[in-house]
Amino acid sequence: MIAFDRNDTLQHDFLRKVTRRHFTPPVTWIPSVGEFDTAVRRGMGWGMIPEAQVRADLDKGRLVEIVPGRHSDVPLFWQHWRLESPLMADLTAAITESARGWLG
Question: FRET partner for 28 with CA separation of 20 to 30 A, picked from 15, 42, 62, 86?
Fold first, then answer.
């Protein structure tokens, strides 16, 4: 199993959700988003990657779902300083609007 770092519990949470058991498989930590993705794509282990990033590879059979049809939703948050400015307000509006469109 591949995890981002020791605080990344997505993979363990998914195992518990699917099996209703607590497993502790061997883990390789790869604290780089790009390298994490590359490691999974090269078959070095399995890990949770956002569906939007892998949809084409799933459709072409280059990647497979471990448990077809099962997924884990992850809440996302936009954080910024309380320093109010027109620039921050515009940036926040642009990011939240784009996220709504991209995440659907």
Answer: 62
